[in-house]
């Protein structure tokens, strides 16, 4: 193999085999010491070429040359093998074990099967892989994508890797983090000036600190003086080599001076104890810094205070939250609350400070500052029985506060709805207990909600309906679907209230029933309508029958009347005959009235005499056998005008009013009916009874449908009457005194109302 050695203009060709044969290549060993213990940490393998003409050529120069020509692969392998052999030999000779370091060039590393070659050398020399250290240089890292997998592979087989000549090449700090490196070796060019050049000193300190932070060991090369050694020791450099300890040695020299070298640091350097102390100090400082970083990076804030001369003085403040609430933590130190908070805020916080200082554990307060809500917990720190400081930590609770606010708003809204509606709303838990009953319970049923809350939904329910409710809940729990039921609730004063209730099961995230929401509604009125409809249907059938019967009666009546008239002329008992005829007339008019009322005619307007209409109605009631002890007195003004009206409808009005009057006097009495001219425009009809009367409270509701005090009443009578009179352009007015009597006044216009008024 030929190599060209370029030095100046002269060329030098070399043949490795020849060189080796001539034994011109010499191996030397440079011990590297642990700067703490002074022990030999490792040994670097170097070689010299003792050129017959050029003299000694260093391994550094030779390496550069060999790299250019490619001979490096062979030389490199030779070196590695020799180093391993030597190291194994020393081990066999009884020296303590240490790794031997060999430098590698990039072309060596990237040649195929490099890792296998290394492995083979290790196997052949029987050296354990941890005792081989491969030195790479920063330039290798430029081909990171190729080199990195190989280095990882080397690490995997257990070889150590170091980065040599650190600071001289182009090393991206990124690689320092990514590469599987065990130690870095600081270039001798920094070390040689470290005690004289401040910048070099700074660089070395920085490199050591950085390497330690990255958990790498640091070695310094080229230590030549005691000052340098002390400097490096003080700054906790781990390993060192150089002329101050030893020059490169031949194997036997190394073996012989081994223990002498290990004595140097013990004698010349800082004692291991001091070194250890230095190291601990550094570790402590690192730990402190880490804590500071963590605390100030944490999202919350942490601070402490002590009591001095009756004032709470802050002694420590960290945390991002300080900045967010608009306080620079450093500015708080040495200050009390009143120095940076408005008086009212400071006074409030002071109370909590006092409590914590009094020894109360777990004092907490919420603060609001700069748009941020925070929760601070205070913890007193004791020394013996005395409280020496209080540590406070705060977290940001703005999000939580916002959520609470929205929830509260929402709840308020629902509450507003719930509290202002007539529907009965209840929340029932799965144990069948009412958790909530809406205020409408009181308005609808007369009992306040708290009567129901805490009880079963069957409380105050009609005994006959209890089982219905039980099955409603069973159904809801089983099918997880809504259940409907109608039942009766006890009213505080008035018997039973019919309600319909719709219950809905509310499910949780797991699909289990969490509670039931039940909405119930008073349906008494609806129930009554239903009843009335049934009743009125019956009535209308009865009414139709009555009309039919009346019709049937009229025909025979007519013939009877004719024959009686005939008889009167022949028979002598004309007096009796007159009586018979007058009775028949009465019968005829009653039956006729029935027929007209039963007829469902369309409304029509006619000029009619009110007196006649009224008389016809009264004649219906004039049956003493039906209404005992009721007497109807009629008083009509002279010269009453005719009015335009629907005769049938008017009669209905009069009938309703008279019927009410009769019903108001169960023990009999007098009903006075008057018709008078009110003025030129209207006629007034008054119906006065001496009945039970109507209370002022009730009178307001008269004319509302279904308002009735009677067991079989409908409350429709006056409503219909109002409607009819209104359509005629008139009014109905009721005055009444309880237990004295009632006066119903109907005003009707004389003139026909205009079509507009007439239409509803
Ligand atoms: P109903 O007669 O079916 O009850 P109404 O509309 O005719 O229905 O009457 C409504 C209510 O007004 C009655 O139930 C009664 O309480 C009251 N009322 C009407 N007229 C009188 C009266 N003359 N005296 C006492 N109460 C009356
Ligand atoms: Mg009535």
Automatic annotation (TrEMBL):
<keyword id="KW-0808">Transferase</keyword>
<dbReference type="InterPro" id="IPR000700">
    <property type="entry name" value="PAS-assoc_C"/>
</dbReference>
<dbReference type="InterPro" id="IPR005467">
    <property type="entry name" value="His_kinase_dom"/>
</dbReference>
<dbReference type="GO" id="GO:0030435">
    <property type="term" value="P:sporulation resulting in formation of a cellular spore"/>
</dbReference>
<dbReference type="GO" id="GO:0000155">
    <property type="term" value="F:phosphorelay sensor kinase activity"/>
</dbReference>
<dbReference type="InterPro" id="IPR036890">
    <property type="entry name" value="HATPase_C_sf"/>
</dbReference>
<dbReference type="InterPro" id="IPR001633">
    <property type="entry name" value="EAL_dom"/>
</dbReference>
<dbReference type="GO" id="GO:0006355">
    <property type="term" value="P:regulation of DNA-templated transcription"/>
</dbReference>
<feature type="domain" description="PAC">
    <location>
        <begin position="483"/>
        <end position="535"/>
    </location>
</feature>
<dbReference type="InterPro" id="IPR035965">
    <property type="entry name" value="PAS-like_dom_sf"/>
</dbReference>
<feature type="domain" description="Histidine kinase">
    <location>
        <begin position="548"/>
        <end position="752"/>
    </location>
</feature>
<feature type="domain" description="PAS">
    <location>
        <begin position="410"/>
        <end position="481"/>
    </location>
</feature>
<dbReference type="InterPro" id="IPR000014">
    <property type="entry name" value="PAS"/>
</dbReference>
<dbReference type="Pfam" id="PF02518">
    <property type="entry name" value="HATPase_c"/>
</dbReference>
<keyword id="KW-0902">Two-component regulatory system</keyword>
<keyword id="KW-0597">Phosphoprotein</keyword>
<dbReference type="InterPro" id="IPR035919">
    <property type="entry name" value="EAL_sf"/>
</dbReference>
<dbReference type="InterPro" id="IPR036097">
    <property type="entry name" value="HisK_dim/P_sf"/>
</dbReference>
<keyword id="KW-0418">Kinase</keyword>
<keyword id="KW-0067">ATP-binding</keyword>
<dbReference type="Pfam" id="PF00512">
    <property type="entry name" value="HisKA"/>
</dbReference>
<dbReference type="InterPro" id="IPR003661">
    <property type="entry name" value="HisK_dim/P_dom"/>
</dbReference>
<dbReference type="InterPro" id="IPR013767">
    <property type="entry name" value="PAS_fold"/>
</dbReference>
<dbReference type="Pfam" id="PF00989">
    <property type="entry name" value="PAS"/>
</dbReference>
<dbReference type="InterPro" id="IPR004358">
    <property type="entry name" value="Sig_transdc_His_kin-like_C"/>
</dbReference>
<protein>
    <recommendedName>
        <fullName>histidine kinase</fullName>
        <ecNumber>2.7.13.3</ecNumber>
    </recommendedName>
</protein>
<dbReference type="InterPro" id="IPR013656">
    <property type="entry name" value="PAS_4"/>
</dbReference>
<dbReference type="Pfam" id="PF08448">
    <property type="entry name" value="PAS_4"/>
</dbReference>
<dbReference type="GO" id="GO:0005524">
    <property type="term" value="F:ATP binding"/>
</dbReference>
<dbReference type="InterPro" id="IPR052155">
    <property type="entry name" value="Biofilm_reg_signaling"/>
</dbReference>
<dbReference type="Pfam" id="PF00563">
    <property type="entry name" value="EAL"/>
</dbReference>
<dbReference type="InterPro" id="IPR003594">
    <property type="entry name" value="HATPase_dom"/>
</dbReference>
<feature type="domain" description="EAL">
    <location>
        <begin position="9"/>
        <end position="262"/>
    </location>
</feature>
<keyword id="KW-0749">Sporulation</keyword>
<dbReference type="InterPro" id="IPR001610">
    <property type="entry name" value="PAC"/>
</dbReference>
<keyword id="KW-0547">Nucleotide-binding</keyword>
């Amino acid at each position: 193999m030929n190599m060209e050695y370029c030095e100046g203009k002269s060329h030098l060709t070399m043949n490795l085999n020849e060189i080796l044969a001539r034994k011109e290549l010499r191996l030397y060993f440079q011990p590297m010491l642990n700067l703490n213990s002074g022990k030999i940490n490792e040994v670097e393998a170097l070689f010299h070429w003792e050129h017959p003409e050029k003299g000694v050529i260093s391994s550094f120069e030779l390496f550069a040359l060999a790299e250019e020509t490619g001979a490096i692969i062979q030389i490199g392998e030779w070196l590695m093998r020799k180093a391993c052999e030597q190291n194994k030999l020393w081990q066999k000779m009884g020296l303590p074990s240490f790794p031997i370091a060999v430098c590698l060039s990039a072309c060596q590393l990237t040649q195929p099967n490099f890792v296998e070659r290394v492995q083979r050398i290790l196997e052949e020399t029987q050296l354990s892989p941890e005792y081989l250290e491969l030195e790479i240089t920063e330039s290798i890292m430029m081909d990171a994508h190729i080199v990195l997998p190989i280095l990882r592979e080397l690490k995997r087989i257990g070889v150590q890797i170091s980065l040599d000549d650190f600071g001289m090449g182009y090393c991206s700090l990124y690689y320092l983090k990514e590469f599987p490196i065990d130690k870095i070796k600081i270039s001798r060019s920094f070390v040689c000036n470290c005690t004289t050049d401040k910048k070099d000193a700074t660089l070395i300190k920085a490199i050591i600190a950085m390497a330690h932070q990255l958990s790498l060991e640091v070695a310094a090369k080229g230590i030549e003086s005691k000052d340098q050694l002390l400097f490096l020791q003080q700054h906790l450099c781990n390993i060192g080599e150089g002329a101050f300890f030893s020059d490169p040695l031949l194997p036997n020299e190394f073996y012989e001076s081994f223990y002498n070298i290990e004595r140097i640091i013990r004698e010349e350097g800082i004692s291991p104890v001091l070194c250890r102390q230095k190291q601990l100090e550094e570790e402590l400082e690192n730990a402190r810094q880490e804590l500071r970083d963590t605390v100030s990076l944490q999202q919350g804030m942490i601070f402490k205070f002590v009591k001095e001369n009756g004032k709470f003085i802050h002694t420590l403040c960290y945390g991002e939250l300080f900045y967010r609430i608009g306080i620079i933590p450093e500015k708080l130190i040495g200050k009390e609350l009143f120095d940076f908070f408005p008086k009212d805020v400071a006074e409030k916080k002071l109370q909590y400070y006092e409590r914590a200082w009094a020894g109360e554990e777990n004092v907490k307060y919420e603060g609001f500052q700069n748009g941020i809500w925070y929760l601070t917990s205070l913890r007193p720190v004791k020394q013996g029985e005395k409280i020496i400081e209080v540590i406070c930590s705060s977290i940001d609770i703005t999000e939580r506060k916002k959520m609470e606010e929205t929830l509260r708003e929402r709840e308020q809204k629902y509450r507003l709805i719930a509290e202002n509606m007539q529907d009965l709303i209840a929340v029932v838990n799965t144990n069948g207990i009412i958790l909530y009953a809406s205020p409408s319970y009181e308005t609808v049923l007369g009992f306040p909600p708290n009567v129901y809350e805490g009880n079963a939904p069957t409380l105050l329910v009609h005994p006959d309906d209890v089982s219905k409710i039980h099955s409603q809940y069973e159904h809801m729990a089983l099918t997880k679907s809504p259940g409907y039921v109608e039942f009766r609730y006890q009213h505080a004063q008035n018997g039973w209230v019919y309600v319909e209730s719709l219950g809905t099961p509310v499910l949780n995230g797991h699909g289990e029933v969490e509670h039931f929401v039940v909405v119930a509604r008073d349906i008494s009125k609806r129930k009554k309508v239903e009843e009335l409809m049934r009743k009125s249907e019956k009535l209308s059938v009865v009414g139709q029958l009555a009309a039919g019967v009346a019709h049937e009666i009229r025909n025979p009546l007519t013939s009877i009347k004719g024959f009686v008239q005939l008889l009167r002329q022949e028979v002598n008992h004309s007096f009796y005959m007159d009586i018979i005829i007058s009775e028949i007339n009465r019968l005829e008019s009653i039956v006729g009235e029935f027929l007209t009322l039963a007829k469902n005619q369309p409304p029509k307007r006619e000029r009619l005499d009110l007196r006649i209409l009224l008389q016809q109605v009264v004649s219906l009631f004039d049956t003493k056998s039906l209404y005992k002890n009721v007497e109807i007195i009629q008083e009509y003004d002279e010269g009453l005008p005719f009015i335009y009206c629907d005769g049938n409808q008017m009669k209905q009005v009069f009938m309703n009013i008279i019927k009410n009057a009769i019903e108001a006097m169960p023990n009999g009495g007098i009903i006075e009916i008057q018709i008078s001219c009110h003025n030129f425009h209207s006629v007034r009809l008054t119906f006065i009874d001496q009945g039970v009367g109507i209370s002022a409270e009730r009178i307001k509701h008269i004319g509302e449908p279904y308002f009735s005090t009677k067991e079989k009443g409908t409350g429709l009578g006056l409503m219909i009457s109002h409607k009819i009179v209104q359509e005629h352009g008139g009014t109905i007015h009721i005055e009444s005194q309880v237990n004295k009597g009632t006066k119903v006044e109907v005003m009707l216009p004389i003139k026909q109302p205009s079509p507009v008024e007439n239409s509803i």
